[in-house]
Structure formats: C-alpha cells, structure tokens
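COMPLEX REQUEST
Ligand: xanthosine-5'-monophosphate
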Amino acid sequence: DWTPQSFVEETVANLKNTLGSDRVVLGLSGGVDSSVAAMLLHKAIGKNLYCIFVNNGLLRKNEFQEVLDQYKNMGLNVKGVDASARFLDALAGLNDPEEKRKAIGRVFIEVFDDEAHEISDVKWLAQGTIYPDIIESVSATGGPSATIKSHHNVGGLPDFMKLKIVEPLKALFKDEVRRVGASMDMHADLLGRHPFPGPGLAIRILGDITAEKVRILQEVDAIFIGNLKKWNLYNSVWQAGAILLPVNSVGVMGDERTYEKCVALRAVESTDGMTADWVNLPYEFLQKTSNEIINKVKGVNRVVYDISSKPPATIEWE
Ligand code: XMP
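STATUS: Structure written out below.
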C-alpha cells in the first residue's frame, strides 16, 4: 500500500526532523532523480536547500538555459554555473573514453567544490541516488560514484565530500521516482526525460572533443530528438541520441567531391539499460530526419542508423 502521496508526506516530515534549520547543497543534473530529490527537500526546508546546476558544455542544445528556467519556475533556490570552457580545456587532446570520463569527473568535482564553498555554513550534501544506483555502484563502470572514487585515489577528499549525506530516494526504483514527482505536480517533460549520461556528448563524440564538434552534434541531436517528439515516438523510446563518428565520408556537391562528417543515430528500448534492443523506427521518420540533418547541419553529409542490440553492443559507442 505504498503510495507516492504517503511517501512524500513521510519523507518531507523526516527531512524536516533530520535537517532542522541546517543548510543543504545539491547538484542538479537536469535528470529525473536529482530533480525529484530537490523538490522533496524544497518542500521540507525551502531556501535552506542550495541547488547547483553545472553546465559542462556537453549538454543538449539549449538544455542548460531551458532546464535552469524550469528549475526556477519550480521555486528552487538554484544557481546555474556555466563552466563549459573549463571542461573543454580539460578535454583538449584527450581521445581515450575513460580519460575523457575522468577529466569530466575531476572538473565537475572542482567546480562543485568551489561553489559549495560559496555557501556559508553548509552541513549536508543531498544526492538523488536511487536503489539501483546502490546495487550498480558495486560494479560501476564510470557512473558518478565511480568518478568520485577514482578522484579520491588521486587527490584526497574534496571538502563537500566531508559533508553529511542525505539521499531521500535511495529506497526507490525509477518508476516510483517518476510517480513521486508526478504527485508533486512536477512537469511531465522533466519526469519523462530520457536518461542522459553524466559525461554527456563527450562520449558521443568519438575521439577528441572540440567546440565545433560539440556544436555539430548538438544540432544533429536536436533535430533527431525534436522529430521523435513531433512524431510522438519520444515516449516509446527508452533512450535516444546521435553519435559523431571520427571518420569523414565522401559526398558530392555539384561537380565537387566533399569529405564531411558521418553521424549515427541510436534509439533503444530497455527497462534498466543493462540490456537493450534497437527501436524499429518508421522508415519515413528515418528518411525525413536524415534529409533534415544533411540539409541543415553544415559539415555532415551522411547519416546511419544503429541496428545493434545490447549485448553485445553497448548503448553508447564509447
Ligand atoms: P552502455 O553504453 O554501458 O550504457 O550500454 C548504459 C547506460 O548508462 C549510460 N552511461 C553512462 N552514464 N556516466 C553516466 O552517468 C557514464 O560514463 C556513462 N556511460 C554510459 C548510458 O547513457 C546508458 O543509459
């Protein structure tokens, strides 16, 4: 007889009890878990919750501003920090996927630690950890907790990691988190968002990252995701995105041969990301989307669709 309403009531009461008038800092990612955790804490302690939303420059097109506005509309006490340049600098010249993940994790921790220091007398770190994260962290391969761990080995504990931890969602599964969010009138757009990896577009640009490659991939991704929404396909897909391949393919423009970028589109059905099937998107959708990408995104002359299932292929390409 678990209901989202009773969960909210009980959790808010418990949080009030535990936290009293203490200050709490929380990192928002734009994803479902951190957003719902923030809403619960907001209900319990209001302005004593200090949210930080970092732009790593590897988010989807316009996502930082749109999501930040959404958070502000929800009444959250949120600070948006645009650290794009810092992340791009740290990524310059890195090709190896794990090196890229580590660099992003390291810079995130630095930025977050700087920001947490701006809040005087903060006592708690809140996290949107859910039950499956706790199981997975045992065998984590690059999730947020794994990046924090590898940082520890290098440089000692950042100050915010010495805070007391509060994790209001740690007993819930994803679908329960969504129901809890809905019962607090959170926007369906926010609750229904596809999962998006912490390192963002960095692991969908195979090889090294440049600002120009990020721009190209953001444009391609925005057309693909926008069309999934237009065709009412977005909600029947578990996760989708575009991958920028590290090859130039030949094309023709008038009498000239061109060598331009090739992108892969990926859309999967899954329940937990551990296994996944590629989605049988309508041919007409693929045709229109491919034409639109090639016509509108300068620098791309070829689009392919990934028809591999997991296992053995993973969802991401690196
Ligand atoms: P794979 O590619 O392993 O992806 O089939 C499974 C799910 O995990 C996400 N993913 C990540 N999430 N940091 C994250 O926060 C990462 O480094 C990372 N790598 C993969 C992926 O988007 C999919 O949902």
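REMARKS: Residues 101, 142-144, 195, 197-199, 203, 239, 273, 310, 314-316 surround xanthosine-5'-monophosphate (CB under 6 Å). Residues 139-155 have pLDDT under 50 and may be disordered.
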